[in-house]
Amino acid sequence: MPQPKAITVIGTRPEIIKLSPVIPLLADVFNHRLVHSGQHYSYALDACFFEELCLPAPDHRLEVGSASHGVQTARILARLEPVLLDEVPAAVIALGDTNTTLAAMLAAAKLQIPAIHLEAGCRSFNRAMPEEINRVVADHVATWCFAPGEWERGHLRSEGIPDDRLQVVGSTAIDACLRNAPLASGRTLGQQLGLAPDTYVLLTLHRAENTVPVTLRSILAGINELAETWPFIFPIHPRTRAVLDTLEPPIALHPQIRVIEPIGYLDILRLTSDARAVITDSGGLQEEAAALGTPLMIARQETEWAYLVEAGAAVLVGNTQETLMNAAPNLLRAGRDAFAAVDVTTQRGAAKRIVAGIEALLSADDRL
Question: In the CATH scheme, what architecture does the domain 189-345 have?
Fold first, then answer.
């Protein structure tokens, strides 16, 4: 009996990372196809991620490029639909909260192809975030929602999604981190920058709400104050750099803030592991810091990964100079003593649970 065909749709580097433990397992069970939308980068610029993580090249490249949310989502829909019509998959799989994820779930649903949303049920409850709109809509049009934990399943239940559409599978970010951390152990970027372990702070900022000029200026004013005491490594996102370069009046970053170009996943893992703390607005990096036992400060007013805050492994420090300075200096002085360790190994195995769950659902689906 031939293997059923499954298509996974990805578009951003965090999706590649989080799906890196899942894609090889899907290829073992299904006739698997990989679609790269090119939401943030072309495949040519993402190729190093595929090679670094030992992933196959995409079968289809949509190359939609950057655009406004509406235009970009429409491009993905328009270019993905003919791929689905040609491939006729038994299921379409997407993860997270990007425009690629939303478009993949919509395209599959409109063609009545079973749509599987991974990392379902995450909620910030901030509808001003484009990602929040994407994840809510994706959950409600998906055929099945695979949630990372009971917290997220509770969100889905409260929104009226029935239990027969829900599974709790754990977090693929944890699987990816635990799988790839040994590969990162030989990376030496921190040493090349002259910074010893536990002496620097890793900073990442890219969320839309944090790259509004007034907000970015306020956050960086706080970071400049902190840099009087602590060196920073700041891999700068293209969106953040574009705003920073156009600020009027310009803001000068402290000499102890080392601004570097975006770097690979393995370098990020090593820098995170060695950092005294991470200050970030990234969703993926939050769980990676927790998995590596690194103190985590979230530069936002809320987080989808509330379990990390509840457990004491992370602190919400807000996205203003005032809120940052109210919390961060004491947390940095205390280091790991101010944060609880979270046993994320209990979530290990999400990739296997996801693939087994998809296989079981497709076998039982009388529409197929």
Answer: 3-Layer(aba) Sandwich (3.40)
Mean pLDDT of the 61-79 span: 94
- Chain region(s) in the chain for CATH 3.40.50.2000: 5-170+349-364, 189-345
Taking the C-alpha atoms of residue 164 and residue 143, their distance in angstroms, rounded to an integer, is 10
The pLDDT of 121-146, averaged and rounded, is: 95
Identify which of 344, 270, 315, 305 has the alpha carbon closest to the alpha carbon of residue 123: 305
254 is catalytic: no
- Strand, coil or helix: what is 35? strand
**What CATH code is assigned to 5-170+349-364?**
3.40.50.2000
Per-residue DSSP letters for 98-123?
SHHHHHHHHHHHHTT--EEEESTT--
Q: What is the pLDDT of residue 342?
A: 77
Question: Stretch 41-67: mean pLDDT, rounded?
Answer: 84
Which residue in 32, 40, 60, 206 is the catalytic one?
206
Expressed in angstroms, the distance from the first to the final Cα of the chain is 14
| pLDDT tens digit sequence for 258-274 | 999 988 889 999 999 99
Q: Are 144 and 171 in contact (CB under 8 A)?
A: no
